From TrEMBL:
InterPro entries: AI-2E-like (IPR002549)
One Gene Ontology term, aspect cellular component: membrane
Organism of this sequence: Natronorubrum tibetense GA33
Family: Belongs to the autoinducer-2 exporter (AI-2E) (TC 2.A.86) family.
Major subcellular site: membrane
Compartment(s) where it occurs, according to its Swiss-Prot or TrEMBL record: Membrane
Transmembrane segments: 12-30, 66-92, 148-170, 206-227, 233-253, 260-279, 315-347
Name the record gives this protein: Permease
Pfam family, one: AI-2E_transport
Membrane topology: Multi-pass membrane protein
Annotated keywords: Membrane, Transmembrane, Transmembrane helix
Length: 360
C-alpha cells in the first residue's frame, strides 16, 4: 500500500514537473513571438482564405505540396499584392490630410506607442518636409533613404515569414488536424465539438465577412474610378480609395452603413454641381443609381450570401471589426473577429454546461 502511494506521489511529481516545464516553455515562446502576433494572426486569416482552394485542388488529385504551391502562387500572393497596393495608395492619400489629423491616425495604428522615427505632430511634420525640401544634402537623403529601406526590408521579411507559415499550414493541415484530434483531444467529445465549431466559425468570419468587406472595397474603388472618368468638369469623387475603404468598412453596419457613405458623397457632389454648373447635377443622381441601387443590389443578392456566414449575431461582428483595430492596431481587424468567435462559442456551448453542472 505504501509502495503504491509512493509510486502515485512520484508519478504526480513527474506530471507536475512536466506541466511546469510546459508552462515555462509556453511563456518563453509567447515572449519571443510577441512582436509577431499581428503577422501570425494575419497568417491564420490567409490560411482560411486559401484552405477552400487547396482542398478543392486535393480533391482533383493534386498532392498536398502541389496544391499548397498553386494556392499560394495563384491565390494568396495576388491577394496580398492587392492588399499592399490598396494600403500603399491609402497611405499616399492619407498624406494629403491635414497634419493636425495625422497624430490621431498614427495613435490608432500604433496603440502601443508611436515609433520615434515617425513624425506625428504639426511641429514635427512641417520641419521634416521643409528640411528635406530646402536642404536636400547627401546626409539627409541617405538617412531618409536608410529609414525607408529598413522599413521595407522589415516588412518584406515579415511578409515572407507569414507566407511561409501559410504554406505549411495549408500543406500540413490534415496531419496537424489528425495529430490534434488523436494526441490532444483524444476521447473528449466536448473538446472535439468545440474545436470543430471554432474552425467552422473562423472559416465563416474570415472567409465570409472579411472577404466581403475586401471585395466591396476593391469593387467600390473600381466603380468610383470609372465614375470619375465620366464626371463633368469640376465635379468628381474625392479621395477615391479612402472612400472605397470607408464603403467597405461601413458594410459591417447593416442596412444603413453604405447608404450613409453614399448619401454623404451625393451631397458633396450636388454642392459641387450647384457651384459649377446646374447641368452637372445628373452626376450625383447617376452616382446614387449606380452605387445605391445597382451595386448594393449585387452585394445583397450575390456577394454577401455567397461569402458571409450567418453563424454569429451581426452586432457581435460589428463590434469585433470596429473595436479590434482600435484595441490591437492594424492586425485587430483579424484578431478582433478571432477572439469574438472563440468567446461567443464558449458562451453558447460551454458556459451553460458549466453553470448547470453538466459533466457530459
Amino acid at each position: 500500500m505504501d509502495s503504491d502511494n509512493g509510486f502515485g506521489h512520484k508519478q504526480l511529481r513527474s506530471q507536475l514537473s512536466w506541466w511546469v516545464f510546459g508552462l515555462v516553455l509556453a511563456l518563453i515562446l509567447v515572449y519571443a513571438l510577441r512582436g509577431y502576433l499581428g503577422w501570425i494572426v494575419f497568417g491564420v486569416f490567409l490560411y482560411f482564405v486559401a484552405r477552400p482552394v487547396a482542398r478543392h485542388l486535393r480533391q482533383r488529385g493534386f498532392s498536398e505540396s502541389t496544391a499548397a504551391v498553386i494556392t499560394l502562387g495563384l491565390v494568396i500572393l495576388p491577394f496580398v499584392g492587392i492588399l499592399i497596393v490598396l494600403a500603399s495608395i491609402a497611405i499616399v492619400q492619407l498624406a494629403t490630410l491635414e497634419a493636425t489629423d495625422f497624430e490621431l491616425i498614427a495613435e490608432t495604428l500604433f496603440p502601443d506607442g508611436i515609433p520615434d522615427t515617425v513624425p506625428t505632430t504639426e511641429e514635427e511634420v512641417y520641419p521634416f518636409v521643409e528640411g528635406l525640401a530646402t536642404d536636400p544634402t547627401f546626409g539627409s537623403v541617405i538617412e531618409w533613404g536608410g529609414d525607408v529601406l529598413s522599413a521595407f526590408v522589415t516588412a518584406a521579411y515579415n511578409i515572407f515569414i507569414t507566407l511561409l507559415f501559410v504554406f505549411f499550414l495549408v500543406r500540413d493541415e490534415q496531419r496537424l488536424a489528425e495529430w490534434f484530434r488523436v494526441e490532444i483531444i483524444g476521447e473528449r467529445a466536448r473538446v472535439d465539438e468545440f474545436a470543430r465549431a471554432i474552425d467552422k466559425g473562423l472559416s465563416s468570419v474570415f472567409f465570409g465577412y472579411t472577404l466581403t468587406i475586401l471585395a466591396i472595397m476593391v469593387l467600390a474603388a473600381i466603380i468610383y474610378t470609372l465614375l470619375n472618368a465620366i464626371a463633368p468638369a469640376g465635379v468628381a469623387i474625392p479621395q477615391v480609395l479612402l472612400l472605397a475603404i470607408i464603403t467597405g468598412l461601413a458594410s459591417v453596419i447593416p442596412l444603413i452603413g453604405r447608404n450613409i457613405v453614399y448619401a454623404a458623397i451625393v451631397v458633396y457632389l450636388a454642392v459641387l454641381a450647384i457651384q459649377t454648373n446646374l447641368i452637372s447635377l445628373w452626376f450625383p443622381v447617376a452616382f446614387y443609381v449606380v452605387m445605391g441601387v445597382l451595386f448594393d443590389g449585387v452585394i445583397r443578392t450575390y456577394i454577401r450570401p455567397s461569402l458571409s456566414g450567418r453563424m454569429f449575431p451581426t452586432g457581435l461582428v460589428i463590434f469585433a471589426y470596429i473595436l479590434g483595430p482600435v484595441v490591437f492596431g492594424w492586425y485587430g481587424i483579424f484578431l478582433g473577429p478571432l477572439l469574438m468567435v472563440v468567446a461567443s462559442l464558449f458562451v453558447q456551448m460551454e458556459l451553460p454546461r458549466l453553470l448547470h453542472g453538466d459533466a457530459n
